[in-house]
Structure formats: C-alpha cells, structure tokens
Amino acid sequence: MNFDPTATDPDAHEPTPATGRAFRIGIGGPVGSGKTALTAALCRALTEVRLAVVTNDIYTTEDADFLRRAGVLDTDRIEAVQTGACPHTAIRDDITANLDAVEALEERHPGLELVIIESGGDNLTAVFSRGLVDAQVFVVDVAGGDKVPRKGGPGVTTADLLVINKTDLAPLVGADMAVMVSDAHRMRGTLPVITQSLVETPDAPDVAAWVRGLLR
Amino acid sequence: MDISALVLADSRYPGGGHVHSGGLEEAVSRGLVRGERELPGFLLGRLRTAGELAAVFAAAAALLPTDWAGLDAELDARTPSPAQRTASRAQGRGTMRAGVRAWPSPVLDALLSAVPRPHHPITLGALTGVAGGSPADAAAVAGYLAVSGPASAAVRLLGLDPFAVNAMVADLSAELRTQATRAAATAALPAADLPAPGSPGLDLLAEAHARHHKEEVRLFAS
C-alpha cells in the first residue's frame, strides 16, 4: 500500500482469467452444511451459463450421483475426484487431481464458461488454493450452531462469499440469526455474507446473482 | 544426493501422489493388509517389483535420452495392467506440471511434445536429470516413492501408528540404496534391453481396484 496520493499502485484485484479457460468457483464448508444442495441450486439457476462440476466428496461418487439424480446436469459434465482420504489436501496443498478433472471437463466441453469445484466436507480451516479457483464460497449452516461464524478460521474469514445456509431451521435449533450474521460481518470485514434457505428459495437467487456478477 | 531429489521425494511435492495408494487400498479392503504385521511385507514386495521397475526407468530417463517416446513405450510394455498405466501417467503428468515450473528446460519441452502424459518414473528421471541429479538419485526417488505413498495410505486407511510406519519405511534404506546402484548400472542400456521386473500381484490388485471403484466406494485413485 502506497500512501502517496499521486502514486499509482498495481491493481489490487486478481486479473480476469485468460480467455480459453472457464472461470472456477470453489464451494467449501463443513460436512452437511449444504454444499451439494447449493451446487445443484446453482446448476438449476444458471441456465444461461455453460457449466460443469467437480465433486470431491469422501464417498467419491456420492455427490456426483446426487447431481445426476437431481437431473440438473448431464452426467458428462460431472467429474468425481478421489482425495486419498484428505479432502483439504486435494483443494489446497496438492491440487493436481482437481486440476486434472477441470482440464478433462474443458477438453470434453469446449467453450465451458464456469466450473464449480465442490470440496469434500471438511473443517473450518479448509480453503481452496488460489491456484485452483478464481473465487470461493464457504458454506456453513444454522444447524451447526450459531457460534460457527465467530469461531473464524480461514474459511469463514477469507472466502470471497460466506453463505449461512438452512435459515429456516433457526427457530428449531435455537440459533440466533442476528448473532450469526453480525458475528460473520465482524469476522469478515467488508467481504459479503448471504443468508439463505433452499427450502424457501430452491434456486439460491442471491448466490446465483453473486456468481453472475463474477462472470460479467 | 542432489537436492532436487529431496524436493521430488517430499510428500508435500504437489504432484498428485497423495491420491494413489499403490494397490494398498485394494489389499486392505480384501483383508490382505490389516495392520502393522502385514505392512512391511507389502512394502518390501512393492519395492522389489513395481519399485524396481520404476527405479530402472527413472535412472534411464535421468540420462536425458533423445528418444523419449521409445523409452516411454518400453515402460508401457512392462506395465501389463491398464489401471497401472493410467495411474502412472496421471502421476507423471501431475509431477511434470509442478516440475516444469520448478525446473523449466527445453529438454522437458521436447519430452512433453513427444509424450504429453509421460509415465511417472520417466517424469521423475527427466526432472532429476534436468535439475542436475544423477541416475542413482532418480532411482532412489522412484524407489522411495513406490513405498512412501502406500505407507502413508496405510496410516490414513487403517489409522496405524505413524511412528511405526515411518520406521518401516526407514528400515528399507539399505534395500533402496542397493536398488538405486543397480538401476544406475543399467541406465545407459538401450531402452529395449532395460530390465523388466514384474509384479503380477500388484497388477491384479490395480485392476480389481479400478473395477471396484466403479461399483463402490474407493478413497484413492489407485
């Protein structure tokens, strides 16, 4: 940061990815927070976008099968990655298997615009490598407890978007939404937070709008 | 030993090795490896067969021959299991992706234009050679990775004591050293005359793993 008002700093934002490869969005978060449901919702909502999905679930083909059964995506637009029982390693420390999957999808579908990489369920320290994704979403859910946002961790504090999922369950599990949202904003500064319930809005309109903003 | 060998043999090298178990996952699911008692035998067997073949070809590649396609085809011919060939090329490509950034060279460009997805041992040898390492260095790396990967997979799959498993790998030091010397001695042979140690058991486990993966849960790619 240069404090001289006449000096020109380098652009602080990531460059737009070179043409010829799809934009890559990572979706991470704890087990059961609703990553696959969000991925399916985005596939339904973003009908105008040529997209494909890479799944990293510990049960290898479980999520891919879910997406296929949901009928939201053709089978050949889904790649399942095996993570050697280390889901965080496959998205952060050694992204080779995921890059191979992305490249396989790009070769199979020329002109692909978006690849959603869904991580295997992990803990609050798991984030995607910037070498793998251009932007990342971290999904936590109300049923996991309203203390999760203030626990922090790189997922909550650094993800480009934090989604607090399953808001319809808040009264049932005794979670205080006001506390969750204010904790999330306090931990994240200016980074955005979206609360949603896929029961009430099955096509995740707010997250879909955020993704569209990235693709423009 | 050249420092590049340490970089390549490091389990933190981002070449995609952590998703391969070298047949161990299938052996575990069949009850052939249940714990600390069976693991040393599995590792030694793997080192003397698949590890020996990898060491031989890594050493030959470290001499940076010009006929990369020929060397790659000879290793293909010594790898009868299609699943093993797929796993080797996946690791070769991943290792090369990280390697060309670390040690950029026209030699690697020539290799990749001849063989876009080279076998893992050939990648290890070429990277070691380009970085200034010897055939023996490359052979030691290939042999070590042939056992360190499955050893780590055993810790993850069976929850074994990591100190015990690490000691098993360290116990293979003498075997690894003589293997590297042996592989270096044959490195300059014409590719067709390189040794061809086989591992039918591991070939069958690799095929079974690939088959089961389509039907049921598998955590590792091989």
From TrEMBL, chain B:
Gene3D superfamilies: Urease accessory protein UreF. Residues 75-96 are annotated as: Disordered. Keywords: Chaperone, Nickel insertion. PANTHER family: UREASE ACCESSORY PROTEIN F (PTHR33620). The keyword Chaperone applies. One of its GO terms (molecular function) is nickel cation binding. This is Urease accessory protein UreF. InterPro entries: UreF, UreF_sf.
